[in-house]
Amino acid sequence: MSDATCVMAIDPGAISGAFALFHSDGHVEAGDMAVVDGQLDAAAFARLVRSSHASVAVVERVGAMPKQGIASTFKFGVAVGIIHGVLSACSVPLHYVTPPVWKRHHGLIGKDKEASRALVTRLFPALPGLERKRDQGRAEAVLIGDWFLSKNKEKRP
Questions:
Q1: Where are the domains of the chain?
Q2: In whole angstroms, what is the distance from residue 119 CA to residue 25 CA?
Q3: Mean pLDDT of the chain
Q4: What's the distance, Cα to Cα, between the start and end of the chain in Å?
Q5: Which CATH code for domain 6-151?
């Protein structure tokens, strides 16, 4: 893992997915997944993966949510499939983590996504793009990547 060019971490979402990139030089960035016509833009995601030179990706392992509508569940499943398919097509090794595992690692209990954003602003105070409440997906992607790097004994960037 120490020769990794870039670790990509992903918090999937049908139209609210986010990514974080942990570069080997210590630079960390986070952003939202591109969306077109209400669906994850596969071509834009493929460009992001290729331009990041990601050598490994960690994706939150997700499933259908109780009481979620059929159409939104399908759209969410398509987005997750695009993420997995693009990463595989770009030959990026893929690792998964469930929400309870990375949240427990960071001391986050429950489903309060705002706590994730608050934690990231403390851990990575120079990281831009976390000012708004709706930036919670970016924060969770950062925490997923941070968990992965900690698990693999990498130093925090």
A1: 6-151
A2: 22
A3: 89
A4: 14
A5: 3.30.420.10
Q: What is the DSSP letter of 134?
A: G
Beta-carbon contacts of residue 157 (< 8 Å; ≥ 6 apart): 22, 23, 26, 27, 28, 149
Q: Which residues of the chain, if any, have pLDDT below 70?
A: 1-4, 14, 63-67, 111, 154-157
pTM, two decimals, is 0.90
Helix boundaries (H) for 32-135: 42-52, 70-89, 99-105, 113-123
Each residue of 3-35: pLDDT tens digit?
457 999 999 986 789 999 999 999 999 999 999
Are the C-beta atoms of 148 and 9 separated by less than 8 Å? yes
Contact 76, 64 (CB under 8 A): yes
Burial class (CB in 10 A: 0-12, 13-18, 19+), 2: exposed
Token pair, residue 156, equals 């925090």
The pair of three-digit structure tokens given for residue 57, joined into one six-digit string? 């990706």
